[in-house]
Protein backbone atom coordinates (compact mmCIF):
# COMPACT_ATOMS: atom_id res chain seq x y z
CA UNK A 1 0.00 0.00 0.00
CA UNK A 2 1.35 3.43 -0.95
CA UNK A 3 0.66 6.27 1.50
CA UNK A 4 1.97 8.96 -0.83
CA UNK A 5 3.71 9.03 -4.18
CA UNK A 6 6.16 11.62 -5.51
CA UNK A 7 8.36 11.74 -8.59
CA UNK A 8 11.21 10.44 -6.42
CA UNK A 9 9.57 7.71 -4.34
CA UNK A 10 6.52 5.97 -2.92
CA UNK A 11 6.07 6.26 0.85
CA UNK A 12 5.06 2.78 1.98
CA UNK A 13 5.04 3.19 5.79
CA UNK A 14 5.55 6.12 8.08
CA UNK A 15 6.14 6.90 11.74
CA UNK A 16 5.70 10.62 12.43
CA UNK A 17 5.50 12.54 15.69
CA UNK A 18 5.07 16.20 16.63
CA UNK A 19 8.05 17.77 18.36
CA UNK A 20 7.94 21.51 19.00
CA UNK A 21 7.50 23.11 15.57
CA UNK A 22 8.55 20.15 13.41
CA UNK A 23 7.22 16.69 12.59
CA UNK A 24 10.15 14.24 12.51
CA UNK A 25 9.49 11.00 10.66
CA UNK A 26 11.01 7.65 9.79
CA UNK A 27 9.67 6.32 6.52
CA UNK A 28 9.92 3.15 4.51
CA UNK A 29 10.14 4.35 0.93
CA UNK A 30 10.55 2.74 -2.48
CA UNK A 31 12.93 4.79 -4.60
CA UNK A 32 11.51 4.65 -8.10
CA UNK A 33 14.69 5.17 -10.12
CA UNK A 34 16.59 2.49 -8.17
CA UNK A 35 13.62 0.15 -7.68
CA UNK A 36 14.55 -0.54 -4.06
CA UNK A 37 13.22 0.05 -0.56
CA UNK A 38 15.07 2.40 1.78
CA UNK A 39 14.61 3.87 5.25
CA UNK A 40 14.39 7.67 5.27
CA UNK A 41 14.82 9.94 8.30
CA UNK A 42 13.14 13.29 7.53
CA UNK A 43 11.11 16.05 9.01
CA UNK A 44 8.13 18.09 7.95
CA UNK A 45 6.97 21.59 8.84
CA UNK A 46 3.58 23.20 8.57
CA UNK A 47 3.61 26.45 6.60
CA UNK A 48 1.47 29.47 7.41
CA UNK A 49 -1.26 28.19 5.08
CA UNK A 50 -1.48 24.91 7.02
CA UNK A 51 0.20 22.79 4.34
CA UNK A 52 2.69 20.16 5.52
CA UNK A 53 6.00 20.28 3.61
CA UNK A 54 9.05 18.03 3.65
CA UNK A 55 12.17 19.90 4.73
CA UNK A 56 15.23 18.79 2.71
CA UNK A 57 17.67 19.23 5.60
CA UNK A 58 19.31 16.92 8.16
CA UNK A 59 17.10 15.65 10.97
CA UNK A 60 18.49 16.80 14.33
CA UNK A 61 16.70 15.45 17.41
CA UNK A 62 17.14 15.30 21.15
CA UNK A 63 17.83 11.69 22.25
CA UNK A 64 14.46 11.30 24.00
CA UNK A 65 12.57 12.44 20.86
CA UNK A 66 14.62 10.08 18.68
CA UNK A 67 13.78 7.23 21.04
CA UNK A 68 10.04 7.99 20.80
CA UNK A 69 10.30 8.13 17.01
CA UNK A 70 12.18 4.82 16.85
CA UNK A 71 9.63 3.18 19.14
CA UNK A 72 6.81 4.28 16.84
CA UNK A 73 8.76 3.11 13.79
CA UNK A 74 9.07 -0.36 15.32
CA UNK A 75 5.35 -0.38 16.16
CA UNK A 76 4.52 0.58 12.56
CA UNK A 77 6.79 -2.22 11.27
CA UNK A 78 9.00 0.06 9.22
CA UNK A 79 12.01 -2.15 9.98
CA UNK A 80 12.00 -5.74 8.73
CA UNK A 81 12.91 -8.80 10.82
CA UNK A 82 16.40 -9.02 9.34
CA UNK A 83 17.18 -5.44 10.39
CA UNK A 84 15.70 -5.95 13.85
CA UNK A 85 17.79 -9.11 14.35
CA UNK A 86 20.96 -7.35 13.25
CA UNK A 87 20.22 -4.40 15.52
CA UNK A 88 19.56 -6.72 18.46
CA UNK A 89 22.90 -8.44 17.89
CA UNK A 90 24.63 -5.09 17.62
CA UNK A 91 23.17 -3.84 20.90
Distance between the termini: 31 Å
Overall geometry comes to globular
Mean pLDDT: 95
Query: Reading side by side through the largest sheet, how are the strands ordered?
Result: 1-2-3-4-5
Number of strands: 5
DSSP helix count? Answer: 2
Percent helix, as a range, is 25-40%
Low-confidence stretches: none
Largest sheet: 5 strands, antiparallel
Query: Class by helix and strand content?
Result: alpha+beta
N-to-C order of helices and strands: EEEEEHH
Summed up, the domain count is 1
- Percent of residues in beta strands? 35-45%
- Write down the Rg: 14 Å
Notes on the structure:
It is a single chain. The relative contact order is 0.18. The model has no long low-confidence stretch (mean pLDDT 95). By secondary structure, the protein is α+β, with helices and mostly antiparallel strands. It has 2 helices and 5 strands; from the N terminus they run E-E-E-E-E-H-H. The longest helix has 13 residues.
Amino acid sequence: MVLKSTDYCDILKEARIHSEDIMPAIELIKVKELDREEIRFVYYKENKDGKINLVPRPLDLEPNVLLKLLELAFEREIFDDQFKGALKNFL
